[in-house]
Amino acid sequence: MSAVYNKTRVLEAHLSSLNSVELRKMALLESDDNNRNSVHFAAAHANLEALELLAAADAHVHVTDKFHRTAMHYAAMNDVSKIIETVFVAFKTQGKPLSVYG
User: Which of 5, 18, 62, 87 is most buried, judging by how many CB atoms fall within 10 Å of its CB?
Assistant: First the structure.
């Protein structure tokens, strides 16, 4: 929720407190009932700083929610070019192709 409320320092502190790689991976994969993770929320709320932090922590940007939307979909809904560019670069860095459901 720190990505939603622009509390990037809280997110940074939380990630740095997880000294185990496995714990960090589990925390980055946490999602809500709609299968949206922190990357979805950061993109949806145009939180560039949180998105960059999550990308640097290797958060999965290619995960789809229960509506088959990725973070790129949420970034495009806001039409903020810097957010779209950041999510695109994260997709490219993780080596996952952009795909459209259906």
Answer: 87
> Does residue 32 sit in helix, strand or coil?
coil
In angstroms, the CA 72 to CA 84 distance is 6
- Is 2 domain-assigned? no
Nearest Cα to 62, choosing from 74, 71, 49, 53?
71
How does pLDDT run along the chain (102 residues), one tens digit per residue? 555 555 666 666 666 666 666 776 777 778 889 999 888 988 888 888 888 888 888 888 888 999 999 888 888 888 888 888 888 887 777 765 555 554
Total domains in the chain come to 1
Domain containing 73 equals 8-94
Kindly report the CA angle at 57 between 99 and 65, in degrees rounded to 5? 35
Q: Does residue 16 form part of some domain?
A: yes
